[in-house]
Amino acid sequence: MLIDTHCHLDFDRFDKDRDEVVHRAADAGVTQIVVPALDLDNCRTVLALAEKYEGVFAAVGVHPNSSAGWQDNWVGVLRDLAQHPKVVAIGEIGLDYYWDKSPKEVQHQALGLQLELAAELNLPVIIHNRESSADVIQLLSESPLTGRENPGVLHSFSGNWDTAVSALDLGYCLGFTGPVTFKKADDLRAIAKKVPDDRILVETDAPFLTPHPYRGKRNEPAYVAYVAERLAEECGVETAVFAQQTTANARSLFSRISEK
Questions:
Q1: Which residue in 41, 79, 102, 138 is deepest, having the highest Cβ count within 10 Å?
Q2: Does the pLDDT of residue 259 top 80, yes or no?
């Protein structure tokens, strides 16, 4: 059994065959999928998917690239949405300095308030970080989640070992996606190998970041098995053992999943 801890199943690239995608995932042993939101409207969309599919769970939040129009009263909306029993996290939230779609100070405000909300609701966070590692770590370290058990995950980790250590020291998990299977990803695999067994997660970020051997095609939850297989090989353990460990990690982090 595997859990895809980050998949944008709501994206229109799945509109024509979403049911089949979910069924293929289940056939591949991927029985549960976490779908993070990107903005307030999207929160309602991912909640609808969670209601439709038994194995789909949602995270609610405002992505940094959707934060340009941030209003502090959005926190109240997110608080209400997070009461849904299939909401397992606040996310996808964080910082993104690559696309520059929102001023840095607005991104910081949005992230800070959503971290506070997660602490208030005792929910983990799903953190997006693109070319913003130092500020992400600083804001996480200053948040009320600091010192809590299972505060969240840095999803699709692509930073250096120093960033990994900083995140791990704060109690965060690291999520790995398709690029860890790429031929030239030795540095990323070396980092993944050093992550403690109980702090590593596997995810697809589908429809993006498709792993080998399907690189270049649309990603889907079933393909998280290729991520797990490559990481298990790197760590020198059987794939079934690695799958069991990462599933346990996901259930520990997203505790509302384990209740189902």
A1: 102
A2: no
